[in-house]
């Protein structure tokens, strides 16, 4: 008869690359720390999907908008 082969599939922790068992509490991460690090990456925008705008035309438009604004001085006078 065919003997049942017990095979445990090991995965690598996405954060540090350590081997993790599916039975582990923090699977697929090796630890709670690595899980939080991975979440932090998402929060900080490391895994950005959109790319920044680098069109020269757009930059020119932005340059045209800024500048030419005069800010008057404040009317506060300090009498020492
Ligand atoms: Zn890890």
Description:
It is a single chain. With 80 residues, the chain is mainly alpha-helical. It has two helices and two strands. It has helices at residues 32-44, 56-65; strands at 11-12, 19-20. Strands 1-2 form a two-stranded antiparallel ribbon. The chain is elongated. 5% of the residues are buried. The model has no long low-confidence stretch (mean pLDDT 76). The protein binds zinc ion. Zinc ion (ZN) binds next to loops.
β-strand percent reads: 5-15%
Largest sheet: 2 strands, antiparallel
Q: Please, how many helices?
A: 2
What order do the SSEs take from the amino end to the carboxyl end, as H and E? EEHH
Termini separation comes to 100 Å
The total count of strands amounts to: 2
How are the SSEs placed, and which strands pair?
Layout: E1 11-12, E2 19-20, H1 32-44, H2 56-65
Antiparallel strand pairs: 1-2
The structure holds zinc ion.
Task: Give structural attributes.
80 residues; two-stranded antiparallel ribbon; 2 helices; 2 strands; elongated; binds zinc ion
